[in-house]
Amino acid sequence: MRTEGEKNVKSTVSRAVVTATVTVALGLTAACGGGGDSDDSGDGKKPSKSATSAQPKEEPKPEPKEKAALSSAELEKAVLASGDLKGYKVEKLSAEDMPELTVPVKPSACQALADMFMFTSDPRAAARVGRSMTGPDELDATVISFALLAHKEGAAKNVMDDLRTATEKCESYEDVGSKFGEVAPLTAPKLGDDAISYKLVGLIDDQKTPMSFTVVRSDSTLVAFYSINLLKPKAFGVPEKVVKAQVTKLEKQ
């Protein structure tokens, strides 16, 4: 018997497919001056005490303070809304589309990818907001889903590392009856403090569904996108202008 979390995952996968059919010391070099050889009867002057005194030691710089996780209210202010990007309509994702709990998958090397499909992660985010977006072209069946995930900065870095490792080691996995494979890295946008893009292909209801993912870390917050286009599978992808608009709005908060 499936758990409630598994039902939510299966429901989310199905909804995604249905919707898609209609997202890099201070070095001080002491100059050693040769003063020439001298004997006791020489007229050379001895270096002054001040000149030979040791340089004072620099105090160690304090470690930069880790950025705290943003609150739900701060995420709500930072997330894109209709009108922020001309021609794009933004709607709120339901709680069912963003389940709180993750569902373990095999092999475990693929877990980070399966989690991000649901905008979840390990460690879990302190707060999340999610949205879906459609573009100005009514004939374009691309559907973009995106979320802001609030973490402590160290945790956010760990999630990015796990995703990057998964794109290198994961080949395929099964998640509540749906199969995913053909995992491959894509060129990531030069945004935020770190970014990763990758693709995977889902076999959902016997239909191949290419999906494009982009995740950007800005300080302690992750900006995660994925897109699906069943009508034009080869045209799938998250437009960089959309990702840039969201990262820019977040960084202005």
- CATH names the topology as Protein Transport Mog1p, Chain A
The helix/strand order is HHHEHEEHEEEEEH
- Output the CATH class name: Alpha Beta
At the fourth CATH level, what is the homologous superfamily?
A: PknH-like extracellular domain
Kindly report the spatial arrangement of strands forming the biggest sheet: 1-2-3-8-7-6-5-4
Structural class: alpha+beta
What is the radius of gyration computed over CA atoms, rounded to a whole number of angstroms? 27 Å
Determine the strand fraction and express it as a percent band: 25-35%
Helix content class: 25-40%
What's the number of helices? Answer: 6
Parts with pLDDT < 50 across at least 5 consecutive residues: 1-10, 13-42
* Count of individual domains: 1
Shape: globular
Largest sheet: 8 strands, antiparallel
Query: What's the average pLDDT?
Result: 79
Q: What would your notes on this structure say?
A:
α4 (111-117) packs across α5 (153-169). An eight-stranded antiparallel beta sheet has the order 1-2-3-8-7-6-5-4, sandwiched between helices. Residues 1-10 and 13-42 have low confidence and may be disordered. It is globular and about 65 Å long. The protein has one domain: Protein Transport Mog1p, Chain A. It is built from six helices and eight strands, in the order αααβαββαβββββα. The chain has helices at residues 4-21, 49-52, 72-78, 111-117, 153-169, 240-252, and strands at 89-92, 127-134, 143-150, 172-175, 178-186, 194-204, 207-218, 221-228. The protein starts with a helix and ends with a helix.
